[in-house]
Amino acid sequence: MTAVLIACAHGTRFEEGRVVVRELLDILRATAPDDVEVLEAYVDVHGPFVADVVEEARERTSDIVIVPLLLSTGYHTEVDLQEAADGLPVAGPLGPHRLLAEILADRVRDAGAGPDDTVILAAAGSTRPGAVVDVEGMAAMMADAGVQGPVVAAYAAASEPRIPDAVAAARADGRRTVAASYVLAPGHFSRVIESADADLTSTPIGADPRVATVVWERWREARGGDPS
């Protein structure tokens, strides 16, 4: 029986963001184990919507796992995807994860970060308390991934501190700031991060093959397998 991984992204009205998600889906399909089908789905903004994808997949198999292409816990992971799954396993969000920390470290280095800069881990934000825990965990992992300066978690919306406030606080201490764009793809939140007036801003995580590795790890965990 074919297994199905439903890769569910948020959805965006920005075409460049949709391109990144499709590129990541291509990597997932190229790295899929034998007899595992990867399906595209979205929880908001545009289709194919995850509930419809689940309904179609159930007609062919019962071995279905939804893996959120979302970086932290939030309303979508805790409520929307659980409702769409209707009893099917839903994997945890992608972060925090050491491979994401490595990608973020690469992105801030590529942006020109130096050892004395304050790195603002700039996340979207959520009203769910678990989201702050996840982002702060990701910030702690970035030091292990080679980021030398202080790393401060901040948010575009819903949570505190907001990104411009974190930038201003670091500047008040005489430090140059680098906003590490903790979003998967270009879109609304990447633009909010870019407008926060940091001295440097990294690119989003993007369709990095290491993200696909995290997705497959989350898939195995949700099926009860060894995550290693």
From TrEMBL:
Keyword field contains Zinc: no
Domain of life: Bacteria
InterPro entries in alphabetical order: CbiX-like, Sirohydro_Cobaltochel/CbiX
Family annotation (SUPFAM superfamilies): Chelatase
Keywords, ordered alphabetically: Lyase, Metal-binding
PANTHER family with a match to the protein in the record: FERROCHELATASE CHE1, SIROHYDROCHLORIN FERROCHELATASE, CHLOROPLASTIC
Protein name: CbiX/SirB N-terminal domain-containing protein
